[in-house]
Amino acid sequence: MISSFHCVGMCGPLALSLPVHHLLKLQKILAIFLYNIGRVFSYSLIGVLFGLVGRGIYLAGFQQWFSIILGIAMLLISFQYFFAGNALHPKWLNGLHNGIQQLMMRVLQSKNMTGYLLLGMANGLLPCGMVYLAIAGALSTTELVNSVLFMSFFGFGTMPAMFILGFLGIKFNLLTRQNLRKMIPYVAVLMAVILILRGLNLGIPFISPVLANRPPAAVVCH
Q: Which of 25, 101, 152, 188 could form a disulfide with 78 if both were Cys (CB 3.0 to 4.6 A apart)?
């Protein structure tokens, strides 16, 4: 739900541009709901992809060190943002960003409810600093289902604010949106610290549980 502030700042203009103003009240609710469910669906698919990667790292016995290295990398990226003002997403993703935006513009012209679902799915694939943080959390899991749940709840956590924004048409000026976006590096630092603590195996419940280096060997019965 903390991510909602960032989503309002980044995706707020898109939510406000949804062509729902001509719809009846129930149709408008359904359209905005489908748009947000589309976002959650894309996040869940991302959870599947990076969950498989995280599972492979766990099976290889590198989960503990990977968590520490990932946390340190996130700290470095955050400090770069603090001192150099660089964005938290690589420039090579700009091509993907532009392609998805063009696709979304075509979907916006659709006049059926399926278009809102597809629009949300496309929105979920847009490069975003907060999504990268969620992916880092998904990578740190040892089970595929946990990775999918992590990304799904990331999406569901943003739904209330995004739904209210789209339904009520609340508008934020540029300064407000910029201030909301500034929270990303602070959340990134918090996530980085948690990942480092997680990898240190300090035995702290939920924060730094003891992680097995790899799954136990299978028991063979004769």
A: 188
